[in-house]
Specification:
Length: 126
């Protein structure tokens, strides 16, 4: 089947080259801007048609295989990104808990120190 596709592609390329040679033989006469633009547009569409003839479309089996590969890769990338996101979220929550723990222990020390200082000052003011 691959040989058939290659030969079909070769035939299309040969056909497009023949058409390109025919188009190249035409003489381009000077004219006003509208005539030149019209010829350029006509040449563009002829070239476009020749290029479209060179296209070899894949069969349904190849399209399904390629689509399956793309879907698998997308799922794998999604799982990897999800895992990285969850890991970073977990690390951030650990950091947040550690910061809260440090701030609570510092506040408790300040409360204890302030209470002790007020008790000492009351003792000495008596």
């Amino acid at each position: 089947m691959a040989k058939k596709e290659v030969s079909a592609a070769a035939e299309k390329v040969a056909q497009a080259e023949k058409e390109a040679k025919k188009a190249g033989k035409q003489t381009h006469s000077e004219g006003n801007i509208f005539q030149r633009a019209g010829k350029a547009i006509k040449k563009f569409f002829k070239d476009l048609r020749g290029e479209v003839k060179k296209i070899v479309w894949p069969d349904a089996k190849t399209v399904l295989k390629s689509s399956g590969v793309v879907l698998v890769v997308v799922v794998i990338c999604g799982v990897v990104i999800f895992g990285i996101d969850e890991l970073l979220s977990f690390l951030l929550s650990l950091l947040k808990r550690a910061a809260e723990h440090i701030s609570q222990s510092t506040a408790a020390e300040e409360t204890t120190t302030a209470g002790l200082m007020s008790a000492v000052s009351r003792f000495f003011t008596l």
